[in-house]
Amino acid sequence: MSASAAVRRRVDLINDPIDGSLRLFAIPLAFSFVVNMVYSLIDRYYVSRLGDAAIAAIGTSDQVVFFLFTLVSGFAVGTGIIVSRRFGEGDHKGASRTATQALVGMGVMASAVTAAVYLLLPTVPVIMRMTPEVAELSTAYLGMLLLGFTCNLLNFQMFSIVRSTGNAMFPMMVLVATVILNAVIAPFLIFGIGPFPEMGMQGAGLATAISQMSGTAIALTALLRGKTNMHLDFSEFKLDLELLMRVAKQGFPASLQMLSVSLNRAVIFTIVSSFGTQVTAAYTLGLNVDMFVFMSVFAVGIAVETATGQNLGAGKPERVWGFHRSAMKQMMILMVGLALVVWFVGRPFIELYTSNPGTLNEATTYLHITVFGYLFFAIGLITVRVISGAGSAIISMLVTSGCLLGLQLPLSYVLSHATSLGATGIWIGILIGYIVFAAVALLVLRSRVWLRARV
Asked: Against a cut of 0.70, is the pTM above it?
């Protein structure tokens, strides 16, 4: 297949066989998520040569950027939901108009957020309670990284638009190109190789920013020239505030949902930290294993969300239920298989990062409990993605936030602090939270109230 054909390649989620089209769309998505993780891994690898303070600086900076990204990225999710519905209806002009308006809207919001953060940059180390050495390095890194933040959000917006047409190959190809570029130029800017000055942390941030800007140039050029299945049209552009408000209405609950997940994890870290460094390290390592497993869940979730929007737009609601059943079936096989792998291989993997017996034992306990929640987490996430794909973003947000913040958090605290279970109570609380999440999501799906949403 030529590069041009690969860029245009889309999966027909409206007419193709459900099982096969779900896999064809989800696999490039999953690979994209893995590639996205490599961005921070590359920076961490090079920066680790600068010392522990540099590693801490990049870790805290990533938390700041993730929080900002979560605040705004829901707008891209809302765009994808509406574009997929218009695409399914056969209204390609309406889909293009929505995409064009939303991309401009994202540019304005992202630029405003970036400017605000630049003004508040000196206060970030104080809020994050950084040590003076880490604060200096983090400020240097963030100052350069923010140069590409607007482009990072524009990339996310464009990728969401293209995926909404059934094309997951193009975003993956752009991400691979930018990661390779970052890997190549980062050491030159960080360590001052050849004619380049030694920039240290600033070099790491600048390398990532340049890569993100390059990705924006590639993606925007392709969309403007109609090289993908979506064509942006600025020929008669006039800002449509009513349309942007509809996108924001879909996107705001998505941002709240992502923020609730972020907040849930942050508070669990706080609960875990009360049991000491070993338990905190164990949770961190165990969570890394979970995230690799969940990449496939996130990918299938987006695939189902896109298929829901397109098929409801095409007047084929029966295929929505078919995609949900197919995703449940395929994820059941995959999650059970991955749970077995983690059960037997999890400890040897953790041993690559630590030889501390206490940390090893606690991390193994964590994995041997939470692996039983993999399937339930997958069921819950896929189900709420169907609901949000239909345009019922508020219902999806309430289910997710209610189960994580309203049940999983307090249960983890009570089981770990009010019983003799100790840290094990946290892991059991996480497991029970996943089980309830799946049950509630399925009950809401069966109610069909989410089908009443208008997009």
From this structure: yes
